[in-house]
Amino acid sequence: MLNELKNSIIEGNEEKAKEITTKLLTEGKNPKEVLDNGLVAGMDVVGQQFKAYEIYLPEVIMSATAMKSAMDLLKPHLSKTEAATMGTVVMATIEGDVHDIGKNLVSMMLEGAGFNIVDLGVDVPVEKIIDAAQEQNADLVGISALLTTTMLAMEPVIKMIREKNMKVKVMVGGAPITKEYADKIGADGFAPDALRAISLAKQLL
Ligand code: B1M
Are 177 and 200 in contact (CB under 8 A)? Predict the structure, then answer.
């Protein structure tokens, strides 16, 4: 049945993914096994298909949505360490910016890959990101910006993190962001899409 769960994620079939996850949990299947060999295995395939241009963003979003719903069912059954084996990521869309579709997609995919996500939402001021990173003892801060005006507000976050000597890494992304801009403002990494954000997060940590 794990294979069926994997396929439901690949197909982006949310109802089927929820149904099989519930069934597996009722039968007493190890939740970590359901996560690794069902959900994450399915999302890995989706990632490969996306990279190979075999599928497009809408399909990835459907798969990520199915994954998130199944994860919601699974989460209470996973111990804290199992649920957050990959590290804690504080995610935010920067101050002045309300675009969150891409940020949510990145959050969902990171969560599916085993990261613990603290999503601060949109229009988040610099100080709130810093405070959350400290309070949550975050391993990674992810900042999204979709406007050429708001992307400028990413730099003060990184500056403050460096000034405070915080150990946390910073990943940036969003339509107007480039690798050159990310380097210029001192980010640890830039990802052009949600799938590459997962590889980058794994690499940074
Ligand atoms: Co806005 N908007 N918008 N908008 N909007 C853009 C960004 C724009 C390019 C449209 C245009 O003019 N062609 C333009 C920006 C121009 C510029 O700055 N150069 C624009 C504008 C001008 C505006 C307003 C100012 C319009 C107005 O009111 N006059 C206004 C701003 C409001 C504000 O933020 N203060 C505004 C408002 C809105 C809506 C509210 C209507 C809506 C947002 C709804 C929402 O997000 N809940 C909206 C939308 C939908 C868009 C477009 C059409 C689509 C954005 C989107 O969701 N893309 C957009 C045009 C476009 O991009 N083609 C546009 C799909 C999403 C999956 O992609 O967000 O790029 P994206 O995320 C990708 C990657 O970038 C990456 O991974 C994601 C998945 O692959 N990524 C990361 C994103 N974050 C990442 C973080 C990472 C790593 C990777 O690490 C942390």
Answer: no
Domains within the chain, CATH numbers bracketed: 2-82 (1.10.1240.10), 84-204 (3.40.50.280)
Q: Residues 203, 166, 85, CA angle at the centre, nearest 5°?
A: 40
pTM: 0.81
pLDDT tens track for 8-38 = 999 999 999 999 999 999 999 988 889 888 9
Query: Residue 195 CA: which ligand 1 atom is closest?
Result: 80
Substitution candidate for ligand 1 out of 117, 146, 154, 203 with most atoms within 8 A of CB: 146
Task: Decide whether any atom of ligand 1 lies within 6 Å of the 145 Cβ.
Answer: no
Cβ 97 under 6 angstroms from ligand 1? yes
Find the angle CA(66)-CA(174)-CA(101) to the nearest 5 degrees. 35
